[in-house]
Each structure stands twice: as C-alpha cells, then as structure tokens.
Specification:
Elements (H helix, E strand, L loop, with lengths): L1 H16 L7 H10 L2 H10 L9 H29 L1
C-alpha cells in the first residue's frame, strides 16, 4: 500500500514537470506506469535539475545548523557517558 502511494506522488511530480510540454497528462501517466523502475530512474536522470544557488543568508543559516548539530551531538554523547558512571 505504501509503495503505491509513493509511486502516485512520484507520478504527480513528473506530471507537473510535463505541464509545459505538449504531452497530455493521460499519455504521461500511461508511459510512466508502463516503465520498469530502472527505466523510470534512467529517464529522470536525463532531466536532472541542477543545484539551487543559495543566498548568503541561507548559507549562514545552514552553517549555523551544522554547528548546532555537532554541538548537540557532543552534548548527547557527554550525557550518555556521564549517565553510565
């Protein structure tokens, strides 16, 4: 059941991608359901979206989150070690 939902969501994303193309939603759905998983992955790799350029504010935010994560992992490790004594 879960696999079907994931497949439906994946198909919806691809259908949204084809809106600008001259392909109907029904045709695209038919093609996508007929493809094997590895064929679908290969087709998606051909239309790879490049990485998004981040603004300086976003870069600072992500680096702050990384530093916070490393700090909190250290706190958790410290608490585990002191709790074992």
């Amino acid at each position: 059941m879960m696999r079907g939902r994931k497949k439906e969501k994946m198909m919806e994303k691809n259908l949204d991608f084809a809106v600008g193309a001259k392909v109907s939603r029904e045709e695209l759905t038919t093609v996508m359901t007929a493809l094997e998983p590895d064929q679908l992955i290969a087709a998606k790799e051909r239309h790879h979206c490049p990485r998004r350029r981040l603004t300086p504010t976003e870069m600072i935010l992500f680096w702050a989150l990384r530093i916070y994560l490393v700090f909190m992992v250290g706190v958790v490790v410290y608490q585990i070690l002191t709790g074992m004594r």
